Structure formats: structure tokens, C-alpha cells
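To close the chapter, one final illustration. This time we ask the reader to focus less on the individual chains and more on the assembly as a whole: which components sit near each other, and how the overall shape emerges from the parts.
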Amino acid sequence: MKTFFNLGLLAAFAVSASAAEVKLLNVSYDPTRELYTEYNAAFAKYWQAKTGDSVNVSQSHGGSGKQAQSVIQGLDADVVTLALAYDIDAIASQSHLLPANWQTRLPNNSTPYTSTIVFLVRKGNPKGIKDWNDVVKKGVSVVVPNPKTSGGARWAYLAAYAYALEKNNHDDAAARSFITKLYKNVPVLDSGARGATVTFAKNGIGDVLLAWENEAHLALKEFGADKFEIVTPSLSILAEPPVAVVDKNAKRHGTLAVSQAYLKYLYSDEGQEIAAKNFYRPRNEAVAAKYAGNFTQLKLVTLDSEFGSWANAQKTHFADQGVFDQIYQSQ
Amino acid sequence: MKTTKLKQLIIAAAVGTQVALPVFAADSAVTGTNGTAPAEIAAAPAANDNSAQQAEITALKQQVEALVQKVNALEQKPASADQTATISDLDQKVRILQRQREIDQDAAVAKSATAPKLSLGQNGFSFSSADTNFVLQLHAVLQLDSRTFFHDDNAKGVDGFLLRRARPIISGTVARNFEYNLTPDFGGSQVQIFDAYTIYHGAPEFQVEAGKFKPPVGLEALQADVNTSFNERSLATDLVPNRDLGLALKGELFNGAASYTVGIFNGASDYNSTVTNTFSQNSKAVDARLFFQPWKNSDLNALRGLGFGVGGSYENDQPATNATTGLTPGYTTDGQQRFYTYNKNVDASGVHWRLSPQAYYYYGPFGLLGEYVISDQHVSNYLPSGSKNVDVHNTAWEISGSWLLTGEDASYSGITPRKNFDPRLNQWGAWQLVARYANLNVDDDVFKGSNVNTSLANPTTSADGAQAFAFGLNWYLNKNIRANVSFSHTTFSSYGGSSFTSSSVPAQAENTLFTRIQLAF
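The assembled structure is written out below.
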């Protein structure tokens, strides 16, 4: 009888163990909704096949800077997948929820995919916008989110700045004049990339949207290729959106292992394919070759080569009283 | 759009002219017979009529074509392009303004979600973080009383006004689960800290309270000062501790149908506070209380307001210094006169326990509260000839009733008037009748002795017992303002036929008229 009882207990334990459901919260930036909706389903399938546990990943999206602040202020993220490393650095330095060397824990500086900034214009390109110098022309209305809150906007700002530096023999004053002209053409600043897309595509404001490459493709898909077209400038920036486990939260939730696996799987063939299908440039060369048609080739400069580091870029351009504050407040 | 319409109008006018022409010609002919140019038409040969009309039509056609060309030219003029551009610009500006408004609204909503909140109302002033994890509340209690003693020969009770309580209360929460309260009192004759505690709210069933607060013994003593029926608590409360320093575990079970508190305290003497905020003896008291409201959450309205329980304490009083006796400074009447005190050189010297079965019942405007208290304390009088040890067994009980004349629900935790006082609207607040009877009996053994110096209490100045009857009228102008008037009659009994000295408090019955103006928010 006792043995039978013990076996029953063991069976009950086994059933309960097999029925374990893991919950994760992925705090991400604005345009990754569709990417992670697809990826979460794929990962859940993979994880269940591997461990028997089901994973339910919740998503939170917003301007990258705002999302980072939310995590610092207590949003219980297991993982963060933000637009730029500076925002995750801020989490590490201000809340100590993850170590300062978080970027070394995954390949490619913890950026499993890349992207860049392109132009989305109205069908027929009525203003004839082909490159950055067209964007700063008088009478061209430009839609881009606020770089104080949006990671994509910071990449867009830096892409324009890098173009101006290259065209002016790295004359910083000329580049500053160029970026001033650009933001004089910006009638409204949304807080995030998705809001800016709505402003341009749905509300019909502006002649050109400075957008994440994937967001521009999504706009074509959502609003119709007969209404918009993508213009790829001669030069843009290699945007590297990083990912990281928020160690202390994940440990507290007992989700550290699955959180690590969740991010690691982004580098798998399936993860890379999903990224490419959602118009994020994959790191995996084979997958990149397979989806080469999705991405126009252009000259991509890196943040480090043009601006030194995110810390430098932040301090010079986006911190309070930085260049952006000076040029935008003076309008 | 306008130019297109104009063009259509011109063409229609031209075609209309062509159609109307023969008619106009006929009219002319008719007119001509009586008019100024009949000769020209009349003289025209019939063979030339058709060719002339044809020529005229051709001329008109040319005119129409010319007009169409002019309209086309007008349509293509730069001015129209400007107008179109202006409309487009205006459209963009409107869209931008609309979008900016949306963004501003979103930003305002986001900002309000993270902004601290400030509120001020009948429950006091509150300042909290956006997530309400941190709250600072400011409350105040102000009680201005008057006491008038009758038939006291102006010798004992002093008539006059007094600031009974003047307490700014700082309370709130930190880190969501930690409540705090700091309540100094500027009333009476000395400033002191009445409450200073923090409570960890782990769960309704599990809370930890630490600091200085009311020990869990007496039912009337635990009722908030602003909610008691009379200005002063009854004789029964003379036997329970008032405030004490310690640590307690407490909680509510079954959605409040049962509650418990158990704690360890320094140990306060009968109805006395720990004024110095330190301790005076090595021993500690364990106080505990169980209270039940079995029908609190039921549909049985008649029983929902019934609560009963028992409180008690146990300690082994051993005063550590000569300056403290571990005993009550005295039992007081409703008029706060001491009618019983221990003699000098009498100390607490052993076990002190209390037991207080207690209950209340509230149903509609009716309220009833009662409790019985036993305070049993080992007391010694250290005499040169040898100490005298007595296990003093004092008892007291009270029962009080209330009736809200204006129909509000009576409650242990306060009255909310249905209509606040406002004479302009013929509203007069809530009115409540209250009555109470209380009795305190002192153990006869304290008076036994060969003379007044060998007994533990002096039977000529301390009463063996007191009985008090009181009634009153309470007026709740609103939730924050209350006015009371009450009368209390207290009689005293002496030990074994002893006579009280004429200057002692129990020498004659105490008759006191109380009034109070209370502000509480």
C-alpha cells in the first residue's frame, strides 16, 4: 500500500513537472512587435520540444529610452531587447539588474540582428527625395520621432549626422548646420518609431519618414505598396539593437535558464530566418544570402567609427543641453 | 472644382442661347412689326433667312469656343496652383496640429501616470507616489473640552476648559507594505509621543507591528479617541494598559470574521502610558487578544454588527529602579480625578495578569458595547517590620448604549452623518443619545492592615469601589466636526465602613458636566 502511495505521489509530481508553464516578459522597443510575436511562438515550440515546459512570453513595446527607464523603475523584465546598447547600459548602471559587461555574453556584442535607417516617401516620391541632402531642403516635411525617447530616432539622427560629416570632410560645424536644417523640417516629434509611422502613414503628415528599415517595409505591407515607397540613401548607419537577460529579475522569477535560452535562440537558423523575414538584417551569413533580396545594399557606417561610442554620442548629442536640445529648442 | 463648374455654366449658357435663338428671333419679328426695326427683317428676302441664321450660329459657336479657351486658360493660371498649394499647406498644418495634440495628450497621460498624487478631503491630506507605494498623510485631532463639577464645594474638581487632545498625526506607507504612524500630543500638561509605530503588511492574515501603540487588551481602550461615546473612557478602562512599547503579530482571518493580536511589550501599568519611551523593568509582558465577528460578511443584517472576544495580558512585574513602582498612578473618575492610589513604598512585586471578555453589537442606529476586566497583580509594601504581600484582584465592567436619532448606522469605528450640517439647506447633521454605566471594585485586601501605614492603600482617601452613570448627546456636524455634551454621576464606596477625609476625592459623589468640540480629519 505504501509503495503504491509513493508511486502515486511520484506520478503526481511528474505530471505537475511536465505541466510547468514559464512566463517571461520581453521589454522591447517600438517596431519589434511583429518580429517577437512570430519569434515567441517559434521559441515556445522549440522550448517545449526540448524541455516539455511551455513558455508564455509577454511583450512590452515603446520608445527604447522610455522602456529602459521603465525597467529601471521596476518593470519586471526578464529580458530586454532594445534599440541601442546605451539603453541597456543605463539599466546596468542605474539599477544594477545586470552586469556592466552584459554585451560580452552573446555573439556580435549581443546584437543578433542589425538594421539601418531608410526613407519612406509617398508613392511617386513627389518631392524627389533621393538622399539626405534632399531631406534638409526647404519645404520638405520630415517625420521622425524624438531622439530623447526613441532609439530609432537616435540612429536616424546619427545617420544624418554621419552623412553630413562625410560630405563635409568631417567638419563638425557643417554637420551641425545640416542637422539643424533637418530638424527645422520636422513638424512633430513622436515618442517612438511606431508613433512616427502612424503620423506619416495614417495621419498623412510629412513628405518623408526617417524609419527603421524593417518599419518601412512593414508600412508598405500594412498601408499598401501603392501608397508609399522606400528610398535608400547613399549612406546610413549600421544600427545594432542589442538583447540581454535582466539577471536579477530572471533569477527572482526562476527564469534565468529559459531567459538565456530565449536570447540564444535568436542566433539559431530559425531565429535568424524570422528576423530576416521581418526585415531585420540577420547576422548569419547563409540566412543573409538567402534573404539578400529583402535588403538594398548601401554604405553603412558604424557608430564606433563615427562617434566613438554610445556614451560619447549620448553625452554630445542627446544628453540634456546636448546638440539636439540646442538645435531643437532654438527653433 | 470652381473653374470646372464655371466652364459647365458657360457651355450651358451658350447652348441655351442657341436653342433660344429662334424664339428670340420670332419675338423680334413680332416686336418688329410694332418696334423700331421691323423694316430690316421684314425686308429680308425669304431665301436669305437660313444663311443668315447659319452665319449667326457659326459666330456664336466661335464665341463659345473662345469662352472655353478662356476658361481653360483660367484653369491653368498660376493663381489656381497657388490656391491648391495653400489648401494643401493648410491641410498639412491642420493634420500636424491634430497629431501634436494627440502626442501632447499621450504625454500628459504618461506624465500623470508617473506624477505624484496630492489629495485633500475629509480624510485628511495625502501625498503619494504615482504607484502609491509611498504615501504621506497628515491628519489632526483637536479636542477642546470643558468640565464643570457640581456640589464639589469648589475644593476638588476644577471647572474650566482644557485642550484634551491636540495631535497632529503623520501616517502613511513606505515601500508599499510598510505602514507608519507618528502621533505626538500637545494637549494636556505635557507633550508626549502617543503613537509611533510601523506595521508590515505581509498579508491580511500576517502583519507585524513594532513601536509604541495600544496593547491588545481593552475593547474601549482600543477604540479610536475620536469615536468614543463619551469624553472620557469608563472605569473599566482604568484596569487595562493604555500605550506600550513592543512588537506584535496580528492579522485578520476569514475575511475579517476573526482577528488576532499577540505581542511582547515592556508592560504598562493599569491605564498608563509609557511616557518616557524607554523601559523600567527587566520583565516583559505578553498581551494578546482574539476577536470574532462571525456574521460580518453574511446577509444576516441583525447579526452582522456583533463582535465578541477576549483580551488579556501576563507579566511578572519587577521594577528595576526605585523611581518606578510598576503600579498604576491611580484610578480616575470620569472627571479624571483620582479616587484610588496605592500608598508610598508599595511596589509591583510579581505576576500581573489581566483578562477582559468583551463584546459590541451594532444594528442600524443602535449600538451596545460592554466589557469586563480583571486586573490581578501581586503587590508588596516593604515595611521595616517585614513586607506585606497581597495578590490584588481588581475588577471593573461597563456597558454603554447609543442611539442615533437621525437614523445613521452606529459603528465602533465612527459615525458618518447622512446629511452634513448646513442650516441653509435645513440639514442638521447626525444626533446621537448615549448612556453608560460602569463599576470598578478594588480588592479589599489592599486596605487591610493594622493602620493606614501598614495597608497598601489608605481607606480614608481611596475608595473601595466606584460606580458611574453617564448620559449625553453627541452632535456630528459632519464627518470631521463633532460636539458633545454629557453628564456623569459617580458614587464611591469605602472599605469596611471607613470614612473618607473631607478633602479626598471620594468624600462625595462626583457630578460632572462635560462638553467637547472635536475636530478630526
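The first strand of chain A starts at residue 21 and ends at 29. Chain A has two domains: 2-114+240-294, 117-238+298-329. With these observations in hand, you are ready for the problems at the end of the chapter.
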